[in-house]
Amino acid sequence: MKPTILVVEDDRMIRELVSIYLEKAGYEVIVAANGEDAKESFRVFQPCLIILDLMLPKISGEELCSWFRSEKRNEVSIIMLSAKAKTQDKIDGLKMGADDYMTKPFDPAELVAHVEAVLRRTGQFCQKITYGGLSIQPRKGEVQLFGKKLPLTKNEFNLLFHFMDNPNIVLSRDDLIYQLYPYNDKMVLDRTIDAHIKNLREKIEDEPSSPKRILTVRGMGYKFVHD
Amino acid sequence: MKPTILVVEDDRMIRELVSIYLEKAGYEVIVAANGEDAKESFRVFQPCLIILDLMLPKISGEELCSWFRSEKRNEVSIIMLSAKAKTQDKIDGLKMGADDYMTKPFDPAELVAHVEAVLRRTGQFCQKITYGGLSIQPRKGEVQLFGKKLPLTKNEFNLLFHFMDNPNIVLSRDDLIYQLYPYNDKMVLDRTIDAHIKNLREKIEDEPSSPKRILTVRGMGYKFVHD
DNA sequence: GAGATATTCATGAAATCTTCATATTCCACA
DNA sequence: TGTGGAATATGAAGATTTCATGAATATCTC
Fold first, then answer.
1. What is the DSSP string of B41-83?
2. pLDDT per residue over B173-188, tens digit each?
3. How many Å apart are B10 CA and D18 C1'?
4. How far apart are the C-alpha atoms of B68 and B90, rounded to whole Å?
5. Which of A129, A194, A212, B43 keeps 20 to 30 A from B18, CA to CA?
6. Which of B21, B120, B127, B160 to mutate to probe the A interface, most A CBs <10 Å?
7. Which of these, B77, B73, B122, B108, lies nearest to A77 by C-alpha position?
8. Would the pLDDT of B208 be above 80?
9. Close Cβ partners of B70 (under 8 Å, ≥ 6 residues apart)
10. Which of B19, B15, B65, B59 is nearest to B37 (CA)?
11. Closest among A99, A117, A121, A107 to A51, alpha carbons compared
C-alpha cells in the first residue's frame, strides 16, 4: 500500500511533471487543478501529504492550507509550492502550517527528496514503522517480526500501533483504553489493558532472548521502548 | 519547558547569530563547534532538534548525521545547514535522514520558521526541564542526571517534577501532599513527605560532591534550588 | 452455535508507600 | 558558649498498592 499524495496545481505541465516523478518514486498520486477539486479529493482519498501551489484560481493556496489544517486535519503534511521566493513569503507559508516550502522553479527530484523527508517524520500512518525488526503497516493491518507475519487481534494491533507511534512515551491505561474505545462507549477496567498487554507481549517478545519492547512503568502505565 | 536545540557549527559568528534568534524564539539552545562536542552534548542534553552544519573540522556533518540517526533513530529532528546549494547536495542531505536542508547564506528568521515547522510535528514529545545536568521529561517518565537515567518511583517522580516546575520556590508539605494526592483521598502525615524527600535526595544527589538540590526550609517546607 | 476474541476475576509476588522509633540538626535564649 | 526543645533526617518494619498471570465468563463474528 503506497502513501497517497495530493498534488494541487493549476499549471498542467508542472502538475504532470510532479505526478510522474512521484509515481516513479512509488507514491499513489491524485491531482487537482483548483481548490474545489482539492477539497473533494482530500475528502475522498485522504492523502497523507499535499503538494500545494499557492497561486490558484478562485480559492487561494493559503485559504486551502488553512482549510486543510482546520478541524482534525492536522495529520496531513503540506509542502507549499510558490514562485514567491522572498524570505518573508517563506516564513508566512511555514507559519501558516506548511511542513515545507519550495520555490519555483524547482527540480522535481529535489521535491521528491523533500516529500520523503517529510513523510519519514509524519507519514507514519501511511507507511511502515519499524523498530528493531518489529514493523507495523497500519493501512495493511499487518505486523511483522523479522519478516515473519504476526497474527494480532484488533485490540492488540491498535495497542501496538499506538505504542509504536509514540515510542519511549509513557502511555497511561486511560490513554490506552481511549485508543481502543475512542467513543467512550464502554467501561472497561484497567486490568483489561493488562490482559491485552500480556497477550501482545507474548506475541512480540516470543523468545526468551528477544528484547523487552513494552516496559511497565509502575504507577503510570506502559512504554514502548527501543534502543 | 522549552524544547532544546543543539546547534552544531564551527563558525562562531553564525553559531551565535543562530543561538540568539533561537533563544529569542523561546528555545533552550546548546552549541557545539565540532563533532566530538556535538556527540557529547547530544548524549547529555538530549535535544529534540539539531541544526547541523555540514562543513565541520574532523568529523563531517554527514558522518554526524548518520551517527545521530543510528543513536536514536527517529527521535531527533535534523536541519542541515550548508553552503552547497546544488540540487544533488540537497537531495543527498535529505536522503541521509535530514528533516530539512537550508543553504547558506540564510536568513535566521527563516531558519526559526523552519525550526517551528519541524517541531510542530515532533516537538510535543521532547518537553523537558533541565537544571544543572538534572533533566526531567514528563512524557517519557524519565529523569536523567548528566545523561544517566535515574529510576524514580511514581511519588519521587511527581515530587521532582513539581519541584523543577517551581524552582527556587518554597513548597510546603501540604502542597506536596496535594501534588501526590490531588483527590484528597488520603490522609498522610508530613513525615511521609520527609521520607520521600530523603529517598529522592539519595537519587539525585548521589555523590558527596554533588550539589544540594533540595533545601530544607525549616518550618516551611522544601525548596528546589539552582544557580 | 462454535470458535475467536474480549473482559473480568482471583491470586500471589514484588515494588512501593507509610509509619514509627530513634537520631540528628537547628535555632532561640540564657 | 552551652542547652533544651522543636523540626527534620534516617533506617527499618509493616501495610498497601500495583502488576502479571491463568482461568473463568462474556461477547462478538461468522
1. HHHHH--SEEEEES--SSS-HHHHHHHHHHHSTTTSEEEEEES
2. 999 999 999 887 678 9
3. 51
4. 18
5. B43
6. B120
7. B122
8. no
9. none
10. B59
11. A99
Mutation target for B interface from A48, A65, A87: give the one with most B CBs within 10 A: A87
Residues touching nucleic chain D (CB < 7 Å): A 190-191, 194-195, 197-198, 201, 216-221; B 190-191, 194-195, 197-198, 201, 216-221
pLDDT, tens digit (0-9, with 9 covering 90-100), for A16-52: 999 999 999 999 999 999 999 999 999 898 888 999 9
* CB nearest to B139's CB, from A87, A90, A169: A169
Instruction: Answer yes or no: do A117 and B100 touch at CB < 8 A.
Output: yes
Most confident range (mean pLDDT) of A58-62, B65-69, B217-221 is B217-221
- For residues A108 and A110, give the distance between their C-alpha atoms in angstroms, rounded to a whole number: 5
The confidence score (pLDDT) of residue B45 equals 85
In sequence order, what are the residues at sequence separation of 6 or more whose Cβ sits closer than 8 angstroms to the Cβ of residue B168? Answer: B223, B224, B225, B226
User: What is the reported pLDDT for B215?
Assistant: 95
pLDDT band at A2 (very low <50, low <70, confident <90, very high): confident
- 3-class state of residue A26 by DSSP: coil
pLDDT at A133 over 80: yes
Rounded Cα distance, B77 and B123, in Å: 9
Lowest mean pLDDT among A117-131, A166-180, A191-205: A117-131
Q: What is the mean pLDDT of residues A190-198?
A: 97
Strand D bases within 7 angstroms of protein beta carbons = 7-12, 17-23
Q: What pLDDT, on the 0 to 100 scale, is given for residue A182?
A: 86
Cβ–Cβ gap B73/A226 under 8 Å: yes
Is the Cβ of B212 closer than 8 Å to some Cβ of chain A?
Answer: no
Q: Which residues of A touch B98 (CB under 8 A)?
A: 117
User: What is the Cβ-side half-sphere exposure of residue B100, based on CA atoms within 13 angstroms?
Assistant: 26
Q: Which residues of chain A are within 8 Å of residue B125 when distances are taken between CB atoms? A: 166, 168-169
